[in-house]
Amino acid sequence: MRLEAILQGSVILYGAQAGMNASAPAKGTDGLPTVAWIVILLAAVVISAVVSALVASKNASKSAVEKQIELEKSTVGTAEERAKKIVEEGQKAAEEAKREALLEAKEENIRHKNEAEKEIKDHRAEVQRYEKRVLQKEETLDKKMEALEKKETKLGEDEQILANKIAEAEETKQKELEELERISGLTLEQAKEILLKSVENEVKHDTAVMIKEAEAAAKEEADKRAQDLLVTAIQRCAADSVAESTISVVQLPNDEMKGRIIGREGRNIRSLETLTGVDLIIDDTPEAVVLSALDPIRREVARITLEKLIADGRIHPAKIEEMVAKAQKEVETEIREAGEEAALEAGVHGLNPELIRLLGKMKFRTSYGQNALKHSVEVAILCGLLASEVGCDVRMAKRAGLLHDIGKSVDHEMEGTHVQIGVELCKKYKESPIVINAVASHHGDEEARYSISWLVQAADTISAARPGARRETLVTYTNRITQIEDIANSFKGVENSFAIQAGREVRVMVTPDQVSDDDMVIMAHDIAKKIEDTVAYPGQVKVSVIRESRATDYAK
Prior knowledge:
Elements: H1 2-23, H2 32-184, H3 188-236, E1 247-251, H4 256-262, H5 267-276, E2 279-281, E3 288-292, H6 296-312, H7 317-346, H8 353-361, E4 366-367, E5 370-371, H9 372-390, H10 394-403, H11 418-428, H12 433-441, H13 451-465, H14 474-489, E6 494-500, E7 505-510, H15 517-534, E8 542-547
Parallel strand pairs: 7-8
Antiparallel strand pairs: 1-3, 2-3, 4-5, 6-7
């Protein structure tokens, strides 16, 4: 169609051109007008072709759009039909489900109704059974109540009869008592007192006899065993005892050295006292200077320093400071060596280095004049000997004995007793529970839970109580003697008491009229027990109760 339109257009244009050429005069012989018209004709053909193409394209697009619209209309119509169909099917399915649900609900309702009726029926039957049982019990209770009422009536009658008999018995008893009082010439209270006194005397006698027998048997066995153990241990122990004091004396080559020690305006002595913490006593004592201090380590440092200064001859503050530093190093070395020697002598190995150092410090510590380090070594050796005799761990016993007084090395630096400080130190340096308990219980502050703890107590007592080991102050001795005598005098029937042998024996004089021979045994035991609980003393205290009867007459 496009080609036909183009040809038609070309023919029309050509015809128009031909007509124009016929009516127009001829141009020149070169033919230029004719060519122009051909060009115009071709341009018109091209333009016509383009226009025709555009028109055809527009018509084709319009036709495609119309087809698409028709296709969509047909599709929409089909979808609407399908939707209506789906809706109808859904409605039918819903109606069907509704009918089925109603049927199921009716069936469920009928089933529940039947179950409820069955339960009600069973419940009624159960209630009927309970009612029947209750009725039977009520009948049984009624019968029992009747029987009880009959028994109560009979018991009331029996009680009345019994009360009458009791009254008769009391009357008869009273008559008999009155007759007995008339015959014996004693009242009831007097007879009771005589009887109780007799029973009391018999009980006291039996108790005294039992105590004597038990004490005799225990003492015989204990004395024999203890004597064997202690004699063996003491014979094998040859530790010495060193008595220390709170002063040290330094010998001088001549009295002129005193002035040099004092120095110009006292600067040397002030410097020495400040650096060592020790008081220097320079008096009329010829060729001697006294060093006084409670801390034995400071006193030892001051002694070594002063001896070095005297040997050197140069005494001035700078030299004093230098010598004090050297003396402190020497004392520290001596402390460590003393600790190592003590551990080696006691046969204890594997101690913490700090514990060894603390042991060495005990070389300069005394207790009642007894050197603490020597005492600890002695206790360790005794513990080992006793442990070998009774079958305990010898190494552990020696370790506990050596460390039992370790708290004394720093008790002047820390708060608390040497027992508490020793327990803390042993815990700090990971000692075994046996050693800790031995340290805590060797003065009775805690209960001894191991056999070695008891051995440490025994060895400590042996080391402290042997003659010459310790010395006491006069005040302590007097107070202990007075306290023991006061305890003895506090008992009823004691006429007088005397503490003898430095408080190791107390003799108690009793009144014969108030204390019998059997009472003496019990009194001795009670006095000894009270002394154990209230008095601190080394060793043991013997209690002797003396009952003396005297008959005196005069010849005239």
